[in-house]
Amino acid sequence: MLVAYISASGVTAEAAWKLSEAAGAELYEINPEIPYSSLEMNDPVSSPVIAGKMEDMDQYEVVFVGFPIWWYSAPMAVFSFFLEEKFMQYRKLPKGAEQISVLGIGTSSIQASGEEEIEKIVDAAIENGINFFDMASSEAKPFAAYGHAIKGRRDKVYFQIHFGANYETGAYGWTTNSDTVKRSVDWQMKALQTDYIDFGFIHCIDEPADLRSIEQAGIIRYI
């Protein structure tokens, strides 16, 4: 068992030490080669290199990862740690043989970036084995960037959209009107340059039949 952590003020380090003592686990500090500020820790375009490398990571059946949550998401150094140690694992869907990466990208965490930066982030994620993308966002801008980033490799990624979310005005809105939901789904597919959606998250919808009709039309694969 391993407890890996990154700490800035020392609070996470103390918690990690207590956990390792209680669980009888080894302790490992995730250290970027070049120290950076707490703000930079959550810059979505940063990709800090981790100093050193764990030896024989396969020996650990359980790995706990601790980090500060100033911005309610993991510091980018944690993602670097996952990628450098090749933590990527996949889960098989209940239907078919598709494999979904256990680590995905939430669009709301990168929506503030420019379109070019978003494309780079999506490209880097795909190159490192991430294939699941949740499209919830407070604005419409990221959709077109995703569409450009996945061009020629749509079959390598899985999109989850939120039924009831409506981006027709350019910003996030929500609706329970089935006609507006369908129109919004069409808009999202066009922006993503695809003719189908892999997953639909029921964000806001009136009747289950509304979602079933979208599935039966072949727009979404699973409910």
Any descriptors?
223 residues, alpha/beta, 5-stranded parallel beta sheet, 3-stranded parallel beta sheet, 7 helices, elongated
Quick structural overview:
With about 220 residues, the protein is an alpha/beta fold. Helices cover about 30% and strands about 20% of the residues.
Task: Explain what this protein looks like in three dimensions.
With 223 residues, the protein is α/β, with parallel strands linked by helices. Helices cover 32% and strands 19% of the residues. The chain contains 7 helices and 12 strands. Strands 6-7-8-11-12 form a 5-stranded parallel beta sheet, with helices on one face. It has a 3-stranded parallel beta sheet with strand order 2-1-3, covered by helices on one side. Strands 4-5 form a two-stranded antiparallel ribbon. A hairpin with a 6-residue loop joins strand 9 and strand 10 (173-174). The chain is elongated.
Query: Percent helix among the residues?
Result: 25-40%
The main sheet comes to:
5 strands, parallel
End-to-end gap: 36 Å
Number of strands: 12
- C-alpha geometry: elongated
Structure classification:
alpha/beta
Strands ordered across the widest β-sheet: 6-7-8-11-12
- Compute the average pLDDT: 83
Question: Over the alpha carbons, how many angstroms does the gyration radius reach?
Answer: 20 Å
List the helices and strands and how they pair.
Elements: E1 2-5, H1 11-23, E2 26-29, H2 38-41, E3 63-66, H3 76-84, E4 90-92, E5 99-101, E6 105-106, H4 115-127, E7 132-134, H5 141-149, E8 158-163, E9 165-166, E10 173-174, H6 178-192, E11 197-202, H7 208-216, E12 220-222
Parallel strand pairs: 1-2, 1-3, 6-7, 7-8, 8-11, 11-12
Antiparallel strand pairs: 4-5, 9-10
Helix pairs in contact: 4-5, 5-6
